[in-house]
Design brief:
With about 170 residues, chain A is mostly helical. A two-stranded antiparallel ribbon of chain A has the order 1-2. The first copy, chain A, is globular. Chain B binds a DNA duplex (30 and 30 nucleotides) through helix 1, helix 4 and strand 2.
Chain lengths: ~170, ~170
DNA sequence: AGTTTATCGTTGCCAAAGCAACTAATTCAT
DNA sequence: ATGAATTAGTTGCTTTGGCAACGATAAACT
């Protein structure tokens, strides 16, 4: 308010002086958090209602379809979740017959996790809905813009240590 | 695995047939969720330790600095949170002297919320750290790429109804 | 070999946030 | 003007997910 937008030096966006504020139309952490929360909430509601799985379970299933036989630690690092919730979710999924957990003969601490036939069948249903949801989300961008977005997000993803590590 | 990557029709990325799987290197919802979770977790840990506020409190403060005197409903819609947690957080912030809540003389249900001097002082400290965190996050992109990312995220943000609404 | 150290996973505990039910207040419709 | 519908915010309940402590196994270092 006290700052005139009349000098649009391209990379400005905040007031200088004593009334420094965020520009919420350009603040990336807020954007990403907002989008992610809405996506996860609506995905859980929809997947739960339609297929009886929540988003976390779906993410685990989608990874197990790609990399069968992985241990829990691999799931944690790929989906970025703590091992506590992952362990609990795996226990639940096993009890529902979605996954099989075998001991790793090489390492008594580790396990080999994979989808059962039932888990695979559920996966094959959910993935159709998941891809359709992504398609709708990205429908506001043309094909090239989608590629640009994916490339930029991947670089941000790979740069997260710059924020989460050294604080 | 059963699909040869030898026919790279640009917009492929998934196997066809019975072993349809996600391509996690190109699946936007997973990227965004991963990034958002890591950002929020590390932000809360850092802001809590350094300034005694969590990320939700910081988001509310940053909005109150921009739009003093708004009601809670406005906070909910801008930060994308449910009114329950927002109400509880506001109560806590008031008890700590960060914000003032006055009754709206026009509407007995509504309130006018604003930062106190103490809240403003905290805001002015946190924002420096927040901008520095964003700077580090985006340091892997050049200035133009950052602009592109912001524009694309804004369009995704504005398109969320396509996924959260009709399903 | 034996002791330390590191890793995998489980569990207890807690904070964060959504949903639903509710109260109070306002607006809308007759 | 009065009853119906809407809206603002509070509160109870539940789910989700992180952190820390732990037990069990494996690796590393004398």
């Amino acid at each position: 308010m006290s700052e005139t937008k009349g000098t649009p030096r391209e990379p400005e966006g905040q007031g200088r002086g004593q009334d420094l504020t965020l520009d919420l139309d350009r603040y990336v952490p807020a954007f990403i958090t907002f989008i992610a929360n809405k996506l996860s909430n609506s995905a859980t509601a929809f997947y739960q209602r339609s297929f009886g799985v929540n988003v976390t379970e779906w993410r685990i299933m989608s990874l197990l379809a790609i990399e069968p036989g992985i241990p829990a630690s691999r799931i944690c690092s790929v989906i970025g979740f703590d091992k506590g919730p992952v362990s609990r979710t795996l226990t639940l999924m096993k009890s529902r017959g979605l996954i099989a957990i075998r001991n790793d003969p090489q390492d008594g601490r580790s396990h080999s996790i994979s989808l059962t036939a039932k888990g695979r069948a559920t996966h094959d249903k959910v993935i159709v809905a998941a891809l359709e949801r992504e398609r709708r989300l990205l429908a506001c961008l043309d094909k090239n813009e989608q590629e640009v977005l994916i490339a930029l997000l991947r670089r941000i993803h790979d740069n997260l240590d710059a924020v989460t590590g050294g604080s």
